[in-house]
Amino acid sequence: MNTTKVVYKGNLRTEATHIKSGDTLLTDAPIDNNGKGEAFSPTDLVATAALTCMITIMGISAEKNDFSMGEVSGEVKKVMTSGPRRIAELHIELDFQNHNLNETEKGLLEAAALSCPVTRSIHPEIMVNVKFNYS
Description:
Layout: E1 4-10, E2 13-18, E3 24-28, H1 42-64, E4 71-81, E5 86-97, H2 103-114, H3 117-121, E6 127-134
Parallel strand pairs: 5-6
Antiparallel strand pairs: 1-2, 2-3, 4-5
């Protein structure tokens, strides 16, 4: 079964539908590439996929090892380059709050995040910098 159906809506916008759930999202070309920038760009989705994958894989690791991660959030900064236009860098910052993580658990979470399938699928020329903040 296919995963996603995408329809071009005009004006450099697409609508993607997750076939199994029916959830949808819009993409726009970014302002710096002839678009409106009113929704995620396709390269924003790559950056977002890396971050959401890391958090999901950490959640799986925490459940598997029977501990709580506390409250986890993150942000990602995407750096583009030209010639050819592509993602050059992803800077990911993960924040953990209201947790009781020991050093072993932190190590398990960090190893899980760094082994996420999305970041493993990113071309090796793309620098992926990850920072873990425990408050």
